[in-house]
Amino acid sequence: MNLLLFGPPGVGKGTQGQRLARELGVAHLAMGDLLREAVRQGTEAGKKAKAYMEAGELVPDELVVRMIEDKIRNVSGFLLDGFPRNVPQAEALDAMLDRLGLRLDAIIFMDASEETLLQRLSGRLICRACGFGFHRHYSPPKISGVCDHCGGELYQREDDREEVIAGRLRVYREQTTPLLSYYSKRPVFGKVDANGAPDEVYEKLLEVVKQADG
Ligand code: AP5
To answer: Could you tell me the pTM of the whole model?
Structure first.
């Protein structure tokens, strides 16, 4: 299966995407993770992306389109998380899938209240070593500052600082919400209310995937 998850920053795309991709046996292609890894490794793409990411702005389209195409070509089944993020990227994705003879089997929009998004983003902690995500209040690590899974150090993302979050939500409203009209008329489109607890949201996602597949 090939799936696409989109929605505002902090709605839970990464948390749910990871779980869903594992369950369906497909690759979890998270654009933000790919970019952060490129920054960490100091690649040419990473050097270009760094300043945009720290400011909460979108990285230029041609760079992210190239990165995602490289990944899509090398996996069998994928779940896209964080790509596309504007209409030109969605058009580039359609053209790319046509060229590769692939299609999207489910396109899922996740949404939550602004209050929920702010709480989730401002409390998020990530493991520097394995990338696993925690939350100060909703899913705290057993030992403060230490990853339960690998013992790595937990940190707050640069763009999860309060002053950057506001900008990311503005970028989302201006550039990503037009994807709703781009995708919502397609038969494989579904919408999930992501305000609830992780397991509750996951069940809703599975339901939408089944419907789209069925
Ligand atoms: P990216 O990393 O994709 O950030 P984002 O879309 O802003 O999404 P987040 O990762 O912040 O949130 P999420 O929805 O994955 O939530 P999560 O599951 O972590 O992108 C970062 C930057 O990269 C962008 O700003 C841009 O610069 C660049 N970029 C990326 N893609 C690009 C593109 N296509 N084009 C151009 N530039 C691009 O959950 C958040 C927290 O809440 C966690 O702590 C989690 O534990 C907790 N949580 C999750 N679900 C629940 C729940 N149900 N209940 C309680 N807590 C929950």
So the answer is: 0.95
